[in-house]
Amino acid sequence: MKKQATGIALAAAMITTMLTACSGGAQPQQSAGTQSNPGTGSPPPQTAEPSKPAAVSSPAAGGGKVTINFWHSMGGKNGEYIDAMIKSFNESQNKIEVVGTFQGAYAETLTKLQQAIPAKTAPDIAMVERGFIPLLADADVLEDINPYLKKSGMSKDDFVPGLMGNITFNNKLVALPFNRSTAILHVNKTMLDEKGLEIPKTWDDLKKVANALVIKENNEYKRYGYSMVFESWHPVAMIVQQKGRYINQQGTSIGFGMEGINAFKFLKEMQSTGALYYPPAKDSGSITSQMFISGQIGMLYSSTGNIGSFINNAKFNYATAFLPMKDTYGSPTGGANIALLSQSKNKDAAWEFIHWAMTDPKGAQQFIMSSGYLPFTKKMVDSPEMKALWQKEPQRQVAYDQLQYAIDTSDHIQFPAIDQEFLKMQSAIMYDNADIAASIENFKKEAERLMKN
């Protein structure tokens, strides 16, 4: 209990830090591709309202249905898709009633869990942003899912490997992938074709293509080559593409030096020529998405969560591609996982719903196909429905194929606080022209200080 209380107190402190930070990041999804900054990164400022206690999840008198509470962060259209999934499960049997409750952004959901767990009013199941999993795992409030997989005839091998990082701690599988995304390159293929250009595969290609797309008139940029959402995962992807790491394997310091210097030097050079439009931090997702749709930029580094919106709204030949490589391909993953809370009094019933969602075509598979998130089980990937969707919309398969190069950057309990410091460094370099090497050294010192706590 002492470890749990300490972990929950730490969660409270971290969330306070994150809620007062001035950066953009993971948001509750309104629809796949219309949120401010879909995918990953650190949460934006939020004011979390106190959570309503979860209904008691126990059988009704006389052997009625067991109520299972599921807290999630899906609003708007994606919330409707979650509701439809839950309805399908409830109608498929007569023993369990799942109640889904939207709790706000990922950070708000975590804050409400932090309030509910000590009060013993937490839900049975929660959607947890992948960067927050280590924090709750360290607090020992998440159930080990391994035994439930085993008794259901499943194993970790049933899931897509690129989405299974950051969910095993002390040999306990404490979460499973659910609404997961990754960063890819969105391309206005029509614009490139008009210039006789190919979709860039390397940094050198990107430099050539992005600069060729720039239109400057009367000392004013009318069109930029490409842009990216203000999030940590794009520079981190560039670090990974040089075989660097965000955090070293020992968890004692950052895992990059020159890799970071090279990445930010490249970005600043591209910014100086108009090849890169670097957006304001606030609403950067909305700004860059609109610029892409309107033809003000030719390419965009952003989440797979934008694919559906771009397919529906682009008036040009829209394509997707891997993020351009340096020494190798690489892209962090984002989104959230699903976890079973240790204090649930009806874990078997909660697992029955989770298992159904993982295996039934009307479960998470339908949610994935509707929302635009990545399929996370091999069965989903091989399903006739997914194959048909990919044939119709090949942009989605590109996102899945890139998962072979996916990496998880958030396997440290201090990740949320470290990522805030990275964003401060990123902001100073990209907006204030701070010295790159000095900024990285300062970030390293602060990250090491946080890791010692």
Helix/strand class: alpha/beta
- Please give the CATH class of the largest domain: Alpha Beta
N- to C-terminal separation? 20 Å
Secondary structure: number of strands: 15
Tell me the β content. 15-25%
Q: Give me the number of helical elements.
A: 18
The coarse silhouette is globular
CATH architecture of the largest domain: 3-Layer(aba) Sandwich
CATH topology of the largest domain: D-Maltodextrin-Binding Protein, domain 2
Number of domains: 2
Radius of gyration: 22 Å
CATH fourth-tier homologous superfamily of the largest domain = Periplasmic binding protein-like II
Give a written overview of the molecule.
The protein is an alpha/beta fold and 453 residues long. The chain folds into two domains: 2-181 and 334-400, D-Maltodextrin-Binding Protein, domain 2; 183-332 and 410-452, D-Maltodextrin-Binding Protein, domain 2. It contains 18 helices and 15 strands. The protein has helices at residues 2-19, 76-92, 106-119, 133-138, 146-151, 189-194, 203-213, 233-240, 258-273, 284-294, 307-313, 347-359, 364-371, 378-382, 384-392, 394-401, 415-432, 436-452, and strands at residues 66-72, 96-102, 125-129, 168-169, 172-173, 176-188, 215-217, 220-228, 245-247, 254-255, 276-277, 297-303, 318-321, 331-340, 406-407. Strands 1, 2, 3, 6, 7, 8, 11, 12, 13, 14 and 15 form an eleven-stranded mixed beta sheet that branches. β7 and β8 form a beta hairpin. α1 packs antiparallel against α3 (106-119), α2 (76-92) packs antiparallel against α13 and α15 (384-392) crosses α16. The longest helix is centred in the N-terminal third of the chain and has 18 residues, at 2-19. The radius of gyration is 22 Å and the shape is globular. The protein starts with a helix and ends with a helix. The model is unreliable at 10-53 (pLDDT under 50). Residues 1-26 form the signal peptide. InterPro entries: Bact_solute-bd_prot1, SBP. Pfam families: SBP_bac_8. This is Extracellular solute-binding protein. Residues 26-40 have a biased composition (Polar residues).
